[in-house]
Amino acid sequence: MSQLHPNLDIDQANQDLKGKSPEEIVAWALTQAKNPIITTNFRPYESAILHLVAKQKPDITVLWVDSGYNTDATYRFANKVIEDLDLNVITYIPKQTAAHRDVTMNGIPGVNDEQHDKFTEQVKLEPFRRALDELKPDVWFNAIRKDQTEFRQGLDVLSLSKDGVLKVAPLFEKTDSDLDVYLDEHNLPNEFDYFDPTKVEEHRECGLHTQL
């Protein structure tokens, strides 16, 4: 049980939300929230979750942890989505510059490099923890989907962070094809030139949803 949500039976809530539309899941989650946030990294299909939540709560805080290693295309995509949807974005960045880290670690450490965990901690996990500590959300909307990694197949629409924040994944059951339809229906942009240096490989976890 979460101190932030002492009356929530998360197992029952997950059962109640089975078969509900993403819009219905968002609406339900907002009834549980006093200070909700949505996190984004502007990876492919992110405009779907941002549009989905922001159309119900236009002023919601959008947390972007910018590692400093995004592609040019991702930064252009982010600028467009932020402007088109008029998003209330708060950006957190690592405490170390990419230039300093590139020298210290000889570039981006590979997944088998002993420095990779330290790299992930610096560019993603520490800024996320700092953001959650300062923003103090009680509900955290995210774009994770069941078909993305083996770990996520064991999750559900609702879960709790280690600090008791209610994590809500309205698109959990959706596929790329489903989201293609959503983007087309709402005339939303997409961008596939994306690289996450903490994952490197598409089906790896970076630790964000396993440790926080």
UniProtKB/TrEMBL annotation:
Belongs to the PAPS reductase family. CysH subfamily. InterPro entries: PAPS_reduct_dom (IPR002500), Rossmann-like_a/b/a_fold (IPR014729). Pathway: Sulfur metabolism; hydrogen sulfide biosynthesis; sulfite from sulfate. Transmembrane segments: none annotated. Residues 39-189 form the Phosphoadenosine phosphosulphate reductase domain. It comes from Psychrobacter coccoides. This is Phosphoadenosine phosphosulfate reductase family protein.
